[in-house]
Amino acid sequence: MTQQVSDIPLIWRRKKVEAETGLARSTIYAMVKAGTFPSPIHLGSRSVGWIGEEVISWLDRRIAQSRMSVSTRSRQGQETSTQCSDRQPHPRTGVHGH
What we know:
Blueprint: E1 11-12, H1 14-21, H2 25-34, E2 41-44, E3 47-51, H3 52-84
Antiparallel strand pairs: 1-3, 2-3
């Protein structure tokens, strides 16, 4: 039985993971230890790699979380700006007080 090429998991070495995520080596390993980043698999006695699909899934979740938190902060900012709209601007700077 032969596998389709798309069925074979791609293994990413650390430098590829760093390049794709923008994370530093120490951050990746700290997040692995904390359980917030996919764990690497052992490829040999002194080498590891990450399953590319797991890293991509992690990135997708991070993007979704980021978009949700930006949306939430944006809505909170709108509430704050409407609450402050009745305040007078500072006479010299023109900035509304907080």
